[in-house]
């Protein structure tokens, strides 16, 4: 079940998308992926804050209120009677207009969302994953959660062909983030991650993990670092809405630390799981 009546062809009860939809033709839009545990939203508010920021940054004006959007999201869960673990994909694009690079800021946006069941990746979280470094050839506004994911798609596919689960982006010798996740390393008991500049997406789980680290009294440094620092790290992990706190145990075939997920990664995973448990209770 989707929402947004205007996009459902009532004769066949199928959603449709116009040929001259700017999201399709230009990637002119933004999106969010929100987690559900036992059918309950997890960290919804910060996702909404980022969604509105993304829209503002590309001058996309919503024709609905934030309260209406939240009602739609809850309706989506209810109409599907979704009670499992999953995610909602929500996309807002500039809408339909005769094809032209120049956009009309008053154009009515197209919005759609749907739910997909998705279990917590418990076994990879326990074992860790292998990553391959890839050149970060993205634009300079990676802070916007834009629909333009071609460099991410190509990097991850390239990494997958080398036997890796995630691609680790490197720009001018600096490790930025994963193709669809943020990146952290642990050295001498402290956490390091790229600062939230225009070169990375400020992940919701990134922000959450930083707050968990604060609670656990783990020192945090939002600083730039290179591939050599990663290879000499004690522990490494990625964070994202669907993959949570995902240990990286190998980079480009070299083991990180002892080659298995480390104690700080584990402590953060445990703290994250506590939060998941609390969400399920609501
Ligand atoms: N960076 C990139 C490039 C991503 O695509 C994602 C996931 N969408 C993230 C980081 C992680 O963000 P979040 O924690 O909000 O899922």
From TrEMBL:
EC annotation from Swiss-Prot or TrEMBL: 2.6.1.21
GO MF annotations, alphabetized: D-alanine-2-oxoglutarate aminotransferase activity; pyridoxal phosphate binding
Entry annotated with the keyword Transferase: yes
Keyword Transferase among record annotations: yes
GO biological process: amino acid biosynthetic process; carboxylic acid biosynthetic process; D-amino acid metabolic process
One Pfam family hit: Aminotran_4
GO CC list: cytosol
Necessary cofactors: pyridoxal 5'-phosphate
Catalyzed chemical reaction(s): D-alanine + 2-oxoglutarate = D-glutamate + pyruvate
Swiss-Prot/TrEMBL keywords: Aminotransferase, Pyridoxal phosphate, Transferase
Gene3D superfamilies, alphabetized: 3.30.470.10, D-amino Acid Aminotransferase, subunit A, domain 2
Family of the protein in this entry: Belongs to the class-IV pyridoxal-phosphate-dependent aminotransferase family.
NCBIfam families tied to this protein: D_amino_aminoT
Record's function text: Acts on the D-isomers of alanine, leucine, aspartate, glutamate, aminobutyrate, norvaline and asparagine. The enzyme transfers an amino group from a substrate D-amino acid to the pyridoxal phosphate cofactor to form pyridoxamine and an alpha-keto acid in the first half-reaction.
Subunit (UniProt): Homodimer.
Annotated protein name in UniProt: D-alanine aminotransferase
């Amino acid at each position: 079940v989707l929402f947004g009546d205007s996009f459902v062809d009532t004769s066949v009860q199928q959603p449709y998308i116009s040929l001259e939809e700017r999201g399709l033709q230009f990637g002119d839009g933004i999106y969010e992926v929100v987690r559900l545990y036992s059918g309950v939203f997890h960290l919804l508010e910060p996702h909404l804050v980022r969604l509105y920021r993304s829209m503002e940054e590309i001058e996309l004006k919503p024709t609905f209120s934030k309260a209406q959007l939240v009602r739609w999201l809850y309706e989506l869960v209810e109409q599907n009677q979704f009670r499992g673990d999953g995610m909602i994909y929500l996309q807002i694009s500039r809408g339909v207009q005769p094809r032209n690079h120049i956009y009309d800021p008053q154009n009515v946006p197209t919005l759609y969302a749907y739910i997909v069941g998705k279990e917590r990746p418990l076994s990879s979280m326990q074992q860790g994953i292998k990553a391959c470094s890839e050149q970060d050839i993205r634009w300079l506004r990676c802070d916007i959660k834009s629909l333009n994911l071609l460099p991410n798609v190509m990097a991850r596919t390239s990494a997958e062909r080398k036997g890796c689960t995630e691609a680790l982006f490197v720009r001018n010798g600096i490790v930025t983030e994963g193709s669809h996740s943020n990146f952290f390393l642990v050295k001498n008991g402290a956490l390091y991650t790229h600062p939230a500049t225009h070169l990375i997406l400020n992940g919701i789980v990134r922000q959450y993990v930083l707050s968990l680290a604060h609670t656990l009294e783990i020192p945090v440094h939002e600083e730039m670092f290179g591939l050599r620092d990663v290879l000499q790290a004690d522990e490494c992990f990625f964070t994202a809405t669907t993959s949570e706190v995902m240990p990286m145990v190998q980079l480009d075939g070299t083991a990180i630390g002892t080659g298995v997920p480390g104690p700080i990664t584990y402590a953060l995973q445990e703290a994250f799981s506590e939060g998941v448990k609390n969400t399920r209770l609501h």
